[in-house]
Amino acid sequence: MLAASNSSSAFELSQHLPLKPIRGQVSIAPAQNQSRALKTVICGAGYLAPADEQAAHTFGASYNLDSLSSEVEVQDHQRNIDTLIKTDPTLHSLLGEVKASQLDGRAALRCTSPDYLPLVGPLPVFEDFVENYGGLKRDARADIPLSGSYWPGLYVHCGLGSRGFTYAPLGAEILASYICGEAPVLPNDLQKALNPARFIIRDLKRKRI
Ligand SMILES: Cc1cc2nc3c(=O)[nH]c(=O)nc-3n(C[C@H](O)[C@H](O)[C@H](O)COP(=O)(O)OP(=O)(O)OC[C@H]3O[C@@H](n4cnc5c(N)ncnc54)[C@H](O)[C@@H]3O)c2cc1C
Description:
Blueprint: E1 20-30, E2 42-43, E3 47-48, E4 56-60, H1 74-87, H2 89-94, E5 104-112, E6 119-124, H3 126-132, E7 150-158, H4 164-180, H5 188-194, H6 198-205
Antiparallel strand pairs: 1-4, 1-5, 2-3, 3-4, 6-7
The structure holds flavin-adenine dinucleotide.
The site of flavin-adenine dinucleotide has 19 residues, from strand 1, strand 5 and helix 4.
């Protein structure tokens, strides 16, 4: 199973997977008397989570396409503060006088795909796809009645982007159904939309390979 986020494409057989890292940072602020009353996550342009056992709120999270650093940056804290105000100024005021330079945080790289959907399914054999579906370069609408060629027993689960909490359980069910040879979890078109081979087909149609 390749479920190593952006490193899922670090292997010879998987280097064709078009993964795209996007930096993100969450900010952590100490709870205040008023903010302790918050019992659920409030989401909008950004989000604010209830205080945890350490009496700290997390809020965020920033998106930054220009940097691959996982260092915590003050300017990203400021973006998170600005986004929280945009979400609801009351939420921001619950946290008292928050200063970007005094916040804690955590930064990491999300793993995304060109269509921002996850990659869930068997790992395609790149060369076989290029050969078997080569007709798509001449006619992108050609009906090629061949089933895909995949590495036996090798599956992919990555590209969950900002939605790991919601995509991961669905992805796990889909993979379990592939591995156990059970009925598909999703209708065919949705399952295809997540198939890791979709980018090879798309690139053939666009004559990129
Ligand atoms: C700042 C930030 C905020 C986020 N906020 C949210 C949120 O509010 N809600 C939400 O749903 N999602 C959020 N996400 C996204 C969520 O974290 C990811 O979608 C999720 O973690 C993806 O899960 P994963 O298992 O695919 O990858 P990861 O959680 O990154 O796990 C990948 C694992 O692979 C391991 N690994 C890497 N390379 C190798 C290798 N070569 N060999 C072996 N192991 C390897 C890593 O050590 C790691 O354990 C956020 C992400 C960031 C960065």
